[in-house]
């Protein structure tokens, strides 16, 4: 009976931890230069890979902005609704092997994301290898 109780408690803790450490959900992005909140990006899973879409633009003056310099099919699309994180795959505690689009510059970077804690997401875009890039921290929205 004691072993059954301990096994049940351990299983419940494991399940809770797995749910608590999920990167899916809505995240507030912060401007590197001004420190102001820019947008809300929803990270979701599709066909076993992770994607991120802009679901809200926080600056009222930029709500109708389009991705002027974006490559390919994203060129000229509204930033609101634009998928900016594409094809990340889980690798241990992080998600990598995907791309992130900077809608302001239109540049596409390699990307990885990793939870710092349940409410803070490390997002790193880079060229070549991860030392040549920049990191942002996004914050979970309720």
UniProtKB/TrEMBL annotation:
Superkingdom of origin organism: Bacteria
Stretches assigned to the DUF2147 domain: 25-140
Secretion signal span: 1-20
Keyword Signal tagged: yes
Pfam families according to UniProt: DUF2147
Keyword Signal: yes
Keyword terms, alphabetized: Signal
Protein name: DUF2147 domain-containing protein
Organism for this UniProt entry: Marixanthomonas spongiae
